[in-house]
Amino acid sequence: MIVWENFGSMEDTVFCGVFDGHGPYGHVIAKSVRDLLPLKLGSHLESYLSCEEVLKEISLNTANRMTSNNLVHISANGESRVYNKDQDMVQTLLTSIVKAYRFMDKELKMQVDVDCFCSGTTAVTMVKQGQHLVVGNIGDSRAVFDMRNKENKLVLFQLTEDLKPDVPTEAARIKRCRARIFALRDEPGVARLWLPNHNSPGLAMACAFGDFCLKDFGLISVPDVSYRRLTEKDEFVVLATDGIWDVLTNEEVVEIVAKTPTRCTAGRALVEAAVRNWRWKFSTSKVDDCAVVCLFLDSKPDKLSTASFSVDKHISNGLTELDTASTSIPGSGTESPELNGVDRIDTLVTTKE
């Protein structure tokens, strides 16, 4: 996961993301995407594809998305639009995210020191720029959003859709590409993506970075993107990997965050609740890796909370403990030159003065 304040050297701009690797080299790919994707996004914020070109690309690969007040999803036919005085900034963010995701996947394919053929990662990322909130997603990580209604009650929105193989529009694309979708006998509720003539790799998602063995058979890396214009009623956004959502509902996640005594402990409270539920509901299974970013949307200084869990590292609070992951490009032996000028505290990145 990563949180980058003053992203792109712009005030009141935050980039957040969580990444969940899978396969033999999934952890390496997730770290590579974590380090390089925000750099690519930043570079594309000024030089981005034309709006019509990107909307056409999305229309070929994503499903119709629901809309609500101040919330816009780009639809399959490309007809959804954002119309307000800040339209240029919104479209810049939307198109830059799509372009950055596409270039990130190309970058992985060219890397010779990381085997991305049967390994990959999901990604859910968010850019908050002033009152603009843009989310990009591939895979089955998720973003939820909380606000207060007129009665001061919590109201949540799921900002992303879990892009799994049995989602109707995803399944239609996969079948057009001759791949197969079925669940294993001992996991009847988990639809998986399989090669046409081989019972492998059995990927439980329809979109991912890497996994190039499936890229000719319906797996894509074009993100589902959504936009919301923030208001004073909006409270926080939660990004988390499927290790959280497999055992906690959206409502439970929002309730836990809203009830934490201090904001800085919100991420840790979510991870601890998820780990408890994993051990209770799936006592014979290994606890899945969990990563959480909570971003509070008011002007108070303590607006960020992160936490993660893995069977190797256990629970860590992302704002206080140093990350053991390197900021270097895998195999290069040197730190990525684009990261000069930033500090990394676990996954919290801030611009140096």
Automatic annotation (TrEMBL):
Residues 1-297 form the PPM-type phosphatase domain. Residues 324-337 have a biased composition (Polar residues). InterPro entries: PP2C, PPM-type-like_dom_sf, PPM-type_phosphatase-like_dom. It comes from the Eukaryota. Residues 324-345 are annotated as: Disordered. SUPFAM superfamilies: PP2C-like. One of its GO terms (molecular function) is protein serine/threonine phosphatase activity. This is PPM-type phosphatase domain-containing protein. It comes from Brassica campestris. The lineage of its organism: Eukaryota, Viridiplantae, Streptophyta, Embryophyta, Tracheophyta.
